[in-house]
Amino acid sequence: MRIALTIAGSDSSAGAGIQADLKTFASHGVFGVTAVTAVTAQNTLGITAAAALASDLVTAQIEAVVSDFGVHAVKTGMLANAAIVESVAAAVNDLEIPFLVVDPVVMASSGDPLLDDEGLLAMKTELLPRAHAVTPNISEAELLSGITISTEDDRREAARRIFALGPVYVVITGGHATTRGGQVAEPSDRIVDLVYDGEVFTEYAIDRVAGRHTHGTGCTFSAALTAQLALGRSLEEAVPLVQEYVAGAIRYAPGIGRGAGPMHHFWRLDIDRAGRL
């Protein structure tokens, strides 16, 4: 049994965070274990409350599952503050955890902050040097790189700057509306995820799926990538499979909630059942 660890916050709506990660792992046939960093009260309209856990408790969770099960890959999501970021980086290093995927969660899709400024700095200096891959969207790539992304050349320059922070791969996802000189642009009909390995830029494109039920896309993308790495696939093999999975999860979203609702993480099971009827 392949095992993946998610180190992230709890989302009470179960569309993102730890809950989305576990569903994504399970949908890929990977056993998921967890280290909860924070608890949030949220739904499809936004976050109403949040509280971070003590960093030593986060470390204890990581040590507990790794010492017993071992893990084949790990991802991070909401880390809340610098103390937790530093504790996670130390645990990844001390326990020699392979294939760290960093989803640099800084704010929720609703705009609620999920990482403070000191935490962002710690992520850049302590966590990214230990990462196999980092998966920012456009806004997160701007924060990590320090530049505004208005053109494709800007996105590539941002990838270079983020790569210089230490990860093996930079994956700048294109699912969110891109920015144009600080303004939000209309999304195109194609999603293009950009991968940079320090030498070569590779673009992976897929048709955009229409729909507003996209809560947790960043968490789900990074969790699916982590699951694929745990299964033994290379990042280059994994990205198209991850894109297909996320697109299906949006296409078959259950349509619940009054805002940006959750996706359907087990959509393949429904397709399989329908095919057998």
Offer a concise description of the structure.
With 277 residues, this protein is of the alpha/beta class. It is built from nine helices and eleven strands.
Blueprint (SSEs and pairs):
Blueprint: E1 3-11, H1 17-27, E2 31-43, E3 46-52, H2 55-68, E4 73-76, H3 82-94, E5 100-102, H4 117-127, E6 133-134, H5 138-145, H6 152-163, E7 169-172, E8 179-180, E9 183-184, E10 190-196, E11 201-207, H7 217-230, H8 235-251, H9 267-276
The pLDDT mean sits at: 93
Structural class: alpha/beta
Number of helices: 9
Q: How is the largest sheet built, in terms of strand order?
A: 3-2-1-4-5-6-7-10-11
Number of strands: 11
Describe the structure.
With 277 residues, the protein is of the alpha/beta class. 40% of the residues lie in helices and 22% in strands. It contains 9 helices and 11 strands. Helix 3 (82-94) runs parallel beside helix 4 (117-127). Mean pLDDT is 93; it is low at 178-184.
